[in-house]
Known about the structure:
The chain is an all-alpha fold and 255 residues long. It has helices at residues 2-24, 27-48, 59-88, 91-96, 104-130, 139-166, 170-174, 177-185, 198-205, 208-220, 228-254. This is Transport permease protein. It comes from Mucilaginibacter sabulilitoris.
Amino acid sequence: METIKNYFFADMEVMLGRSMRHIFRSLDTIITVTIMPIAMMMLFVYVLGGAIQTGTGSYVNYLLPGILLIAVANSVGYVSYRLFLDKQRGIFERFHSMPIARSAALWGHVLTSLVSNVMSVVVIVLVALLMGFRSPAGVLSWLAVAGILALFTLALTWIAAIAGLSAKSVDGAGVIAYPIHFLPLISSAFVPTRSMPRPVRAFAENQPVTAIVETIRALLSNQPVGNEIWVALAWCIGIMLVAYAFAMRVYQKRG
């Protein structure tokens, strides 16, 4: 059993390295996942921020949690796209014919999503600091934020894995990113939900992104998180577990 585990982690490390090389060699991925969220943050802070009333002292402090979630959402299309290419080119079949753990190839893509998003989040936070973002949060609060972002990333990544493994075309693999992009836009990420029309407000206040954004915002401002953190964790863990189960089922069926 110990030997099998050692081989599994070694195989997964190789697959992670393979997928990370694809990320570093893909300029469009870097632009979409890191530069575009930064550009959006600058647009909202320096162009639109003066016209948006949030009831807080600094709009960049209010905006940052939503930008971090958008950065994660931007990355999932690439996960499904690269999984589809591996499936279409028969890469999984080649790996399965080798003496490596069967699920290592899939986990390589998932961990690549997690690692690459960690790097993009760090860069975005550094830029936000240059733009005036300040946080009184302590180490534990920052660790809690990191944990929530990691769960959110894994939840979306496993959804993307289902799309990538099930798609019939490249366009079908990438389309999963579009509905996910709408969730941060129709939430409290950019403006308070109280300013929205009643039907839109009802949706915004009862979808996962708002609970996650509000939790991260409270943690970063060192405010009480209340029940929002449990709602956010329930959404992240629930989506992750369901998506993981379906993704593994599709992977085993097609592999």
